[in-house]
Amino acid sequence: MIGLYPTWFEPGVGSGWIVGIIATIHVLASHTSVGAAVFFAGLAVYAHRVDKPEYLDFIRRYGLFLLVFSYVIGSITGPGIWYSTTVASPRGISALIHSFVWKWATEWVFFVIEVVGVYMLVYLAGKVDRRTHLNIALVFGLAGYTTMLIIIGILSFMMWPGQPEWFTDGGYLNGFYGANTWAQLALRTAFMLTMTAVVGGIVASRFEDADVKRRVLRVLAWVGIVSTVAGALLQRWYLATLPESALVVLENRMPAGYAPAMATVLALTLAWFVWTLVQPRRVHMAMASVMTVALLVLGLWPGETTRESIRKPFVAGQYVYSNQVIARDVPGMGIRSELPALEAHGFLKLHPFAPDALRQVDGSNLLEAGRFLALTTCSNCHSLTNTGMRPLARYFGGNTDVPALAAYLQAALSTGNTMYMPTIPLRDDEAEALATYIASLSDPAAAQAWVDRRTRQAAVLPSVADDAEGAPR
């Protein structure tokens, strides 16, 4: 047996989309809060230096808004990510915890400081002297950005370990720090300031004093313009730090309109900030709210799903496949690949939660065995229904030729020739079972006809064997 867990099957949209939806909302909340922390620190320094109390009032109002928008929503979606990823990708989360548990503990310490800091900024405004208020803003900004510094290393490890020595020597520093760490940190810093500027428009638009509203919105516009342009430029650096498999996915598996769509979102975001800069008096809360939702749906969601997609076939550290199988030896962590065992004994015999009736494939259980294989090896990335992400049936063009499907599966998966797909060393009977199930997704009758044929063959073969044994010698 190998150490696999039960598979969480969500028939509506798939487990991956459940995780993605929660994570995207969390990124909007968390990145806005971190960006606001850095922005507040800088704005507080400027406001105290030039004696602009209206900027301090904006910090107080924006902080109060963040208590609900970022910290309440973030505190709900944060545990939501933990719960959903634990059942959707238990070995992926386990890989991260075994490497970075103390990093996460450190991040939580700074998160507590960040939460206390935003409360102090909001409720001590006007009640403490300027130096104390400024120190609170600086500590808030530092604590917020430190949480980003810590999490970025873990996110980068999910793409690939920072240094190749991690595979042989282990050590969290080898896994944490790499070229992708710094590129992603720079890119996310720019993006979080962009989100801070967009969301800040909701708060700034509520100022009744037209002159104060104009000045605050112009500050937000400049922050947004600079950060958006910086993010576009930093994207090239980020792409240069990706592994070859990620670049293959970007070039071959993303929709044809993805790049133009992202360029359009970038242009619209810049246009929003330029319009805010030129016409700040015409900005209303409804418009700023629509822009925030647009950024979430058109910018964040595609960006986060792309980041998840380009990690394929891995989910963590270039050694845990998206279907939870350990794909390579990691001597530095005492980890051994499970592929040789799967090749020798088969997936059904080694999966600890496979029903006993399915461990040996025959004509009577082809469909059930195939469905179990699809659930455990495919459903983390492919929906088994017509809804959700990458429905499995659509990849085979309605083909119901079971031998042809089985041959394709063994050529594409068993050999590892498809760079962005896990290597799945299916035995002949397992490939036939999975092919039968895939055929049933397009034409249940055709698949059942194949099952009936194989059942008849299985019934005839023992009879022939019995006749041979009873024949005179």
Automatic annotation (TrEMBL):
InterPro entries: Cyt_c-like_dom, Cyt_c-like_dom_sf. The lineage of its organism: Bacteria, Pseudomonadati, Pseudomonadota, Betaproteobacteria, Burkholderiales. PROSITE patterns: CYTC (PS51007). GO terms for molecular function: electron transfer activity; heme binding; metal ion binding. It comes from Rubrivivax albus. Signal peptide: none annotated. Keywords: Heme, Iron, Membrane, Metal-binding, Transmembrane, Transmembrane helix. The keyword Cytoplasm does not apply. This is Cytochrome c. The chain crosses the membrane at residues 17-43, 64-84, 104-124, 136-162, 182-204, 216-238, 258-278, 285-303. The keyword Ribosomal protein does not apply.
